[in-house]
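Apologies for my clumsy wording, but can you show me some protein sequence, whichever is easiest, together with the matching structure tokens, please?
=====
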Amino acid sequence: MKHTKFFLTAFLCSALCANASVKPRIQKINAKQSDGTQLVVKHIGNGKISYFTTADGYLVMKNSDGDFCYVTDAGANNYKLSASVAHNPGQRTAEETAMLKTIRNAENVSALNEIMFGEKNTRAIGSQETAPLTSNGTPSVPVILVQFADKKFTAGTDDADVNRFYNLYCNGNGSGNNYTGGGSYGSIKDYFTAQSDGLFKPKFHVIGPVTLDKGYAHYGENASFYTDKNINEFFSEALTKAQAIQTLWEDFDNDGDGVVDMAFFIYAGEGENGCDDPNTIWPKEMASGGTINGTAYGAYACCNEVFDGATDGIGTMCHELSHALGLPDFYDTNYKMYGMDYWDLMDSGNYCENGRTPCGYSSYQKDFMGWKKLIALSPDTPQKITAEPLSKGGNGYKITNTENPNEFYTLENRQNDGWDKYIGYSTRNDGHHGLLITHIDYDANKWMANRVNTDASHQRLTLIPADGTLDSYMHVASADDLEEYLLSAGGDPYPGTNNVHELADDKAVVYTQSGKMNQPIRDIEEDENGTITFKYCITEKLDAPVISELSGTDGYIYWNAIDGADGYVLTCSKDVDFKNIILKVSCSGDVTSASTDSIIKSGALEAGETLYVKVKATAEMKLNSDESSVISFVLSPSSGIVRAKAEAEILQNEGLLTVKSPTSKNISVNGIEGLKYAESRNGEVSVYLKPGIYIVTCDGNSRKILIR
């Protein structure tokens, strides 16, 4: 590769076009205004455009005093602000509200989004064929450390110390064990080695630090809504100074085409994606088309040193390098819908544990890279699948729409282990795990334009949540919001916190023709070791067993044998809703009884306490039965054995409610409003009911029943 010193050619483009970047790290900010009020603003941006909106969507920007004011007129290169500061919806004056009605806010925001995502990329993304880096082997990548005249690195005491720090940060220690000295779960190389099962081991050559001639604000200053108006100067000046240190740039031409595949930059200080300083640089991956001193460069990517006062984790760099490998963004780049949130590296998953433990690649991404192919399932072959966690080498599965080969589901087991320790915004005390089911509607044009999820009405790669609800972290603005978000995130996988064990066609979004996949996924179970099983296209279901009424003298629970069953699962709980399960026993073969001795000996149940028990039948190639009716037992304080009390059997069939009680003759069925619908004095009652909530009373106890 020819290298001519001291000759700087102009970039082929007057302004580089950011192909892809990370989303804002903090999407909602509580800003203090000069009048003493607090304003909730949402930060929106992508490396090309950066702006803010109020909670109800009005465009706001900071004035010269640092207050957020309404944008009354938004031009391509400038904007006008209101004289008054902005307020939250409930705090606005009548004059302020009247003024907002005169603003063409929707048009202004729409125009900004068109700029953000409507410009043609200088390099198609979403394809390995156009990616700067190959996803296999050991490509060499230069990493240039860049500091500014007024902002130096804090990761070391001197330049040599900073270089040593980032060499370990990028490459690890070479011992075979993850390098954690930088505060992350491992190095950049550790991350990609793990995701690729050793097929992709990049080698990073750390250069510098180099110090630019001007302060950081010169390079990161925004022009109206456009970010980093002097980013070209940042790259060219940094590379010119790096060339004085590193002379053999042909070492980074991994494919031999005469072009340095990519150059990565880590700059001192914060990034605009994670702070409120508009003069900082927004991390991004860019196609340059640039030649400096005779050396041609294929792509650039950059990320920041600091977040929230500490050295940033590796997540942002992993995200940007994944763009260089061909992956598009999977977040909803219009910030209206869910995308993949904290479940995917190409959404917010790069920020898991503040970027120190970015979540691992999905099974789709591993398939995209050629590291591990998805296992295709066919409706012609019904089967029971055992899925081990991706973090432990497990496989992902693919279910394709028979009407459209580009529309499919991926199914994968994600556990809070390894790089997935904090996936789904998990915390140390609250893990989110289970079977993730992702709906993908592939369109090559959308992938290559980096517009996978820009259409709120047609998300092309997003979760099918077990609980039916996707609540994005972008809506979190308070402690209460965070609590709701965490509850929602825990319900996204299957079974999840809501114990959802199947994906029915009426819960899934399918865009083509019939609107149904017609390939049911049922009996999704997760054991204590994190292994998941599910049944695919199996339709025959076992009958439910019936627990016998017991004498209570032998401490055993009995039930009838079910034809076709090859096992049973007995579940014991301290509450009738089975939210406090204390024992779950799997019985294989034709066993139709279970001892309660283990419960008594464990001390999980004390004398006088009630134990609730139910059982279901299981089989490999049939669907598990429904649960039996619940039986309750009371531990005798005198003898130490259990005595049985049979719960009422409550059955539903197309609106017909049947209640049978072996111990009580008096049964009543009432509406939630108090109206009595049925009553019996012989221990059994049947009544047809409309959909709604009803109260069944027998044995001196009342239970709510939902009729669907």
Notes: The longest strand covers residues 404-414. The chain has a mean pLDDT of 86. The CA atoms of residues 18 and 628 lie 59 Å apart. DSSP finds eleven helices and 36 strands in the chain.
